[in-house]
C-alpha cells in the first residue's frame, strides 16, 4: 500500500479548506499492516474489530461464494482511510450507513475510504458485499481454500480468512462471530461455536453458527459438504459436535475412533489447564488432500491423512490443548508461536504418561539424546524461530523440551500451577513469550531468564545439567524410544 499524495492548485486547495474542518489535518490512513515483523502486510492499523456477522451463500457445484459481511469495530486513531484483508470481488462497501469508496492494492488489501473522516474512538459498522470463486484466488503464490469432491474447506495458518470474509487478519485483533451460510439441500455448512438454528426454503438450507468468545481470524473455519454429524456431552458437561465427510473411505473408522474421544480428552485436559474455555468442543474430518490438522476454535480441522495408519488420539490431544494454549490465550505476535506449539506438544507428552506409554521426562530424554550437538535441530530458536521456521519440528519438540526443563527447575507444584493459571491470567486475550516467563517467575518465585534464554533462544544444544544431568544423557547408552513416540511423531505435520 502506498499513500497517494496530490498537490492541488490554489483554487482547489481553497475549496478543500472550506469543505473540511481545520482539524482534518490530523486524519490519516490506517496502516496496511498491523506491525508484525514476521508478516508485515498482515492485519491493518487504525481500528479494532469486536464482531463479524457473515451472511453467506455457497454453491458447491461451481465453488461460487456470495456474502455480506457486517463488521463492528472502533477506530484507534483519527482515520481517513482503512484497509481490510480480502481477495474476493467486492461490489459495495458502506461505513456507518453511508456508501464508501473502495479499491484494491497489494496482494490482499481492500482500501476503504469512508464518506467522512472518522475521529478516534468512533464506533463503526462496515458492510461489505462480495462474491467470487475462492479456488481461483491466490496471494503470494498460494491458495488456502481447499476444494473437496462435495464442497470446500477454509482452514489454514497463519491465514485463511482472505478467501471467504474481509477481516483484520491478525491474532491480536480477536472478535466474536455469527456465521450464517445457505447451501443446497443435502449439503451442510459447519463453522465455529454453537449451531443456533437451521431453516430450509426453496431448495436451500441455512445454517446459523455463533462463536460467543473472542476468536482470532485464522481460527475461524468453514466446511461445506456432505457430513455425518454426531453430538454428545462430556462427563464435565461440555457439548461436543463432530463431523465426518461421507466419503472418507478406509480412513473413516480410524478418524471416528480418534475424534469421538474429544469429550473424554477435553475433560482430561481440564485437569491440567483449568475449565474448558468455550461453549462447545469438537472437530471435523473432511475429504481433503492436505496432511495437517489445525486448532480451529471449538471445531478442530483434521486431515483424513492423520488417520491413514489407524486411530491416533495424540493428534486430538494436541489440537484440543490449543483450545487453551493458542485459542483462549492467543499469541501477541507470530514470533510467540512457542506458547501455542510447545505446550500442545507437551500435552501429548502428558497424554503418553496418562496412557502408560512413556513419561514426559522419558520423552524429553529421548528428544535430547536423539539430536547431537551439531544437528540443525538446535539452530532454530523456538522463542523466536523466524517466519521461515515457524512451524518446523524444533518449535514443537525443542519447545516441549524447554517446558520439561521449566518443570524440573521450578518443581511440579509450581509447574502445574503455572499450567492451570496461565489460561485464567490471560483469558480470551493475547500474550507473549516474555509475558509467560514473567508469569512463571511470579508463580515460582524464581528468576528464569537464564533458563528461557538457554532453551528457547540460543542456537546451540543446551548443556545437560541445565535440564537434568542424571537423566537427560548417559554416556555410551543409546536412548530408549518411548512406546508413544511413533504416534507423537506421526503428528509432526499438525499445527
Automatic annotation (TrEMBL):
Catalytic activity annotation: Release of an N-terminal amino acid, Xaa-|-Yaa- from a peptide, amide or arylamide. Xaa is preferably Ala, but may be most amino acids including Pro (slow action). When a terminal hydrophobic residue is followed by a prolyl residue, the two may be released as an intact Xaa-Pro dipeptide
Cofactor(s) needed for function: Zn(2+)
Top-level taxon of the source organism: Bacteria
EC number, UniProt record: 3.4.11.2
Aminopeptidase N-like N-terminal domain mapped to chain residues: 50-219
CDD domains registered for this protein in UniProt: M1_APN_like
Domain Peptidase M1 membrane alanine aminopeptidase: 309-455
Signal peptide start and end residues: 1-24
Entry-linked InterPro entries: Aminopeptidase_N-like_N, Aminopeptidase_N-like_N_sf, Peptidase_M1, Peptidase_M1_aminopeptidases, Peptidase_M1_dom, Peptidase_M4/M1_CTD_sf
Keywords on record: Aminopeptidase, Hydrolase, Metal-binding, Metalloprotease, Protease, Signal, Zinc
Coiled coil stretches, renumbered: none
Classification via PANTHER family: AMINOPEPTIDASE N (PTHR11533:SF297), PROTEASE M1 ZINC METALLOPROTEASE (PTHR11533)
Stated name of the protein: Aminopeptidase N
Amino acid at each position: 500500500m502506498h499513500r497517494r499524495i496530490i498537490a492541488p492548485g490554489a483554487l482547489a486547495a481553497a475549496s478543500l479548506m472550506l469543505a473540511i474542518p481545520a482539524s482534518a489535518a490530523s486524519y490519516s490512513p490506517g496502516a496496511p499492516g498491523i506491525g508484525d515483523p514476521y508478516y508485515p502486510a498482515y492485519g491493518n492499523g487504525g481500528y479494532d474489530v469486536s464482531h463479524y456477522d457473515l451472511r453467506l451463500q455457497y454453491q458447491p457445484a461451481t465453488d461460487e461464494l456470495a456474502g455480506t459481511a457486517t463488521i463492528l469495530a472502533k477506530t484507534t486513531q483519527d482515520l481517513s482511510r482503512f484497509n481490510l484483508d480480502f481477495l474476493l470481488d467486492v461490489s459495495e462497501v458502506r461505513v456507518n450507513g453511508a456508501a464508501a469508496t473502495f479499491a484494491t492494492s497489494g496482494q490482499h488489501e481492500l482500501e476503504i475510504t469512508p464518506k467522512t473522516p472518522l475521529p478516534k474512538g468512533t464506533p463503526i459498522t462496515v458492510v461489505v458485499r462480495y462474491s467470487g470463486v475462492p479456488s481461483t484466488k491466490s496471494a503470494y503464490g498460494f491458495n488456502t481454500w481447499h476444494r473437496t469432491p462435495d464442497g470446500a474447506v477454509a482452514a489454514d495458518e497463519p491465514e485463511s480468512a482472505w478467501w471467504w470474509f474481509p477481516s483484520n487478519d491478525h491474532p491480536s485483533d480477536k472478535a466474536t462471530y455469527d456465521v450464517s451460510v445457505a447451501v443446497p439441500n443435502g449439503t451442510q455448512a459447519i463453522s465455529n461455536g454453537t449451531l443456533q438454528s437451521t431453516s430450509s426454503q426453496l431448495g436451500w438450507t441455512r445454517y446459523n453458527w455463533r462463536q460467543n468468545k473472542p476468536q482470532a481470524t485464522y481460527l475461524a473455519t468453514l466446511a461445506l459438504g456432505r457430513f455425518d454429524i454426531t453430538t454428545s456431552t462430556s462427563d464435565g458437561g461440555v457439548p461436543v459436535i463432530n463431523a465426518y465427510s461421507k466419503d472418507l473411505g478406509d480412513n473413516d473408522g480410524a478418524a471416528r475412533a480418534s475424534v469421538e474421544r474429544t469429550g473424554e480428552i477435553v475433560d482430561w485436559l481440564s485437569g491440567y489447564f483449568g475449565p474448558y474455555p468455550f461453549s462447545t468442543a469438537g472437530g471435523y474430518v473432511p475429504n481433503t488432500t492436505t496432511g495437517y490438522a489445525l486448532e480451529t476454535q471449538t471445531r478442530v480441522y483434521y486431515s483424513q491423512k492423520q488417520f491413514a495408519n489407524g486411530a491416533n488420539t495424540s493428534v486430538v490431544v494436541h489440537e484440543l490443548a490449543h483450545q487453551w494454549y493458542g485459542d483462549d490465550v492467543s499469541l501477541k505476535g507470530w514470533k510467540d508461536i512457542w506458547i501455542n506449539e510447545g505446550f500442545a506438544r507437551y500435552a501429548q507428552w502428558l497424554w503418553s504418561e496418562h496412557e502408560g506409554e512413556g513419561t514426559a521426562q522419558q520423552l524429553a530424554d529421548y528428544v535430547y539424546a536423539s539430536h547431537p550437538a551439531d544437528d540443525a535441530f538446535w539452530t532454530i530458536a523456538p522463542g523466536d524461530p523466524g517466519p521461515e521456521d515457524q512451524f518446523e519440528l524444533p518449535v514443537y519438540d525443542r519447545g516441549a523440551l524447554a517446558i520439561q526443563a521449566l518443570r524440573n527447575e521450578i518443581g511440579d507444584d509450581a509447574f502445574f500451577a503455572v499450567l492451570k493459571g496461565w489460561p485464567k491470567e490471560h483469558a480470551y486475550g493475547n500474550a507473549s513469550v516474555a509475558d509467560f516467563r514473567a508469569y512463571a517467575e511470579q508463580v515460582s518465585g524464581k528468576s528464569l531468564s537464564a533458563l528461557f534464554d538457554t532453551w528457547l533462544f540460543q542456537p546451540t544444544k543446551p548443556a545437560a545439567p541445565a535440564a537434568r544431568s542424571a537423566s537427560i544423557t548417559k554416556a555410551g547408552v543409546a536412548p530408549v524410544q518411548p512406546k508413544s513416540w511413533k504416534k507423537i511423531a506421526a503428528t509432526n505435520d499438525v499445527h
